Amino acid sequence: MEPQGIALPVTAYPPDRSDDLAAFERIMARCERRVLRVALRLLNNQQDAQDAAQEVFLRLYKHLGRLDLDDARGCEPWLFRVTVNVCHDMARKRGRSVALEDVTLEDGPAVPPGAQHGLERAQQLELVRRALGRLGEKERAALVLRDVEGLSTREVAAILGSSEATVRSQISTARLKVRDFTSRLLRRRT
Amino acid sequence: MNCAKWKIDIALYAGGDLPANRLARTLAHLEVCAECRLLADDLRAGQTLLSALQDEPLEDAMAAHVRQRVLARLPLEEAGIARRYWRWAPAAALVLAAILTIPWRSEKQAPLARAENAPPKVAEAPPAVAKAQRPVARRHRRAKPQPSEPLLVQLVTDDPNIVIYWLVDPKPQGD
Predict the structure, then answer these.
(1) Does A4 contact B149 at a Cβ distance shorter than 8 Å?
(2) Which helix (H) or strand (E) holds B115?
(3) The pTM is what?
(4) Which among A25, A69, B127, B155 counts the fewest CB atoms within 10 Å?
(5) pLDDT tier at A105 (50, 70, 90 boundaries)?
(6) ipTM here
């Protein structure tokens, strides 16, 4: 007697990922510097930025099946969002944030007496980097994405999961704080 | 002039983010307020510096180091993904087995359950007409012919060398 048979497909192995791996390497080659740069601006520390970038790309690898890998540009907002989240998690764990009020004269770069215009370019950049480091995490993320990376307000809002109005409020406050910080430091120096 | 209320709009204006409906008012204020013009100039200078941070070269070694670390971790991640797939296989098999077994078990246990409950029901509740009708319906179900052939469940995996066969005896034991 022939037994009744039911064939049930059971996926015991993950799907073939060799194509995904090639796409992953393409995306990584294309975006690694941008991810690293954002992480560096958000964390203000090279080692932390490298750790964060590594975590971002490992998460990308885990989510390969859910992303449109043919569109490397389309992956960028996802990568930025993950970068911001990873950096915020790391910053909270390591407690690196410093309030604007905590800044002392010694924190600033060696600035010669005189106005901001007299500073060397590298010193000006260092001053702005330090000012960024003093912002709150949300304001910093909004300012880095908008003013450093040059994304539109709408793109920043989508990445941060906020409204455009919220992002506008964050970047305007952040710009004023950066300006106040640099002016205050310069006034103390002169 | 107290310009505190203009600061936010000037900061947005400096970065080109000011909505059009507030632009004309802000420009008009900047025309008449030297202090705010100075603020706008400072903010624009800050904008230039912030955007210059994007052009700062990153050390090649830094990116290469990250790439190297990520690629070294990929085999571990791959193993983790495979483990995640395998982890669910026994659970899926158990659920499947339970689903296939439950109908026959309930058929087997139904008469016992009725036998245990029958005496108190007869003694306590004579007006329950609906309850009295229930055994009739079940008798109909029991009257169905039971399949006599063994049921073969074949679990096909992605590995062609691994096929799991599972024989289920549909006859209640003890008949």
Answers:
(1) yes
(2) helix B60-124
(3) 0.64
(4) B127
(5) very low
(6) 0.73
